Every structure is written in structure tokens, then in C-alpha cells.
Amino acid sequence: QVQLVESGGGLAQAGGSLRLSCAASVRTNSCNYSAWFRQASGKEREFVAAITKSTGTKYYADSAKDRFTISRDLAKNTVYLQMNSLKPEDTAVYFCACGPQRGQHDYWGQGTQVTVSS
Fold it and tell me: How are beta strands 46-52 and 10-13 bridged, if at all?
């Protein structure tokens, strides 16, 4: 069974930066596709960014494009989300998820809170 653990959340000022990490407890082909989602209080969960393990192909939501960068470290079995130029509307609980292909999210982390002050 795959376990995902997020870290790196916290407080940031508008315009600041945070880097989130998503570490998988085991290395498996079940997580060829990894993604970040976020859910603000009282709002629906939304997609943020994704990356494939095999090719490093990246996908971004419009809200994240040009501000956030997703990356992977295969040796550490970890996916990162570098968030720059943070805005108050980025405030949310951020979740990582993975699965064998795009659109399939079999495993989820517990989430990490990101709060951006104005």
C-alpha cells in the first residue's frame, strides 16, 4: 500500500514563496502520475499541477501556470511544488495524489495547510 506524506506548508506573505513536498513511502509503478490539488475553505477541490514519473511531462492549472513549478526527484521518490508569487487566493489545504495514469488518483496524502496573508 502506498502512503503519501505532504510537507512544506505554512504561512507566507503575498508575493512570497513556499515549496511543498510529497514523499511516497514506497517506489511503485502505481504512481506514474502525481498531482497536486488544493481545497480552500468552503470551496471545491481543484487541480493545481501534475507530473509524470516516466517522462517528466508537466501539467498546470491556469491559476498556477507561470507561478508554480512542479518537479520530481526519482531517487527520493518525491514530488515538489515550488510556489512563487503567492497570492491570498492560494490559501488552501494542498493535497498530493498519484495513480498509474492521468485522471486516476488511487492514493492521497493527508494535506498540508498553506496560508497566504495580504
Answer: unpaired
Q: What is the DSSP letter of 64?
A: T
Parallel, antiparallel or unpaired: strands 112-117 and 10-13: parallel
Indicate left, alpha or beta for 60 from its phi (over 0: left) and psi (-120 to 50: alpha).
beta
Q: Residue 32: left (phi > 0), alpha (psi -120 to 50), or beta?
A: alpha
What's the CA angle centered on 6, arms 61 and 2, to 5 degrees?
Answer: 100
Q: Residue 41, Cα to own-chain centre: how many angstroms?
A: 17
Beta 18-24 vs 4-7: how paired, if at all?
antiparallel
Type and span of the H or E element at 44: none
Q: pLDDT per residue over 24-64, tens digit each?
A: 987 667 889 999 999 999 999 999 999 999 999 999 999 99
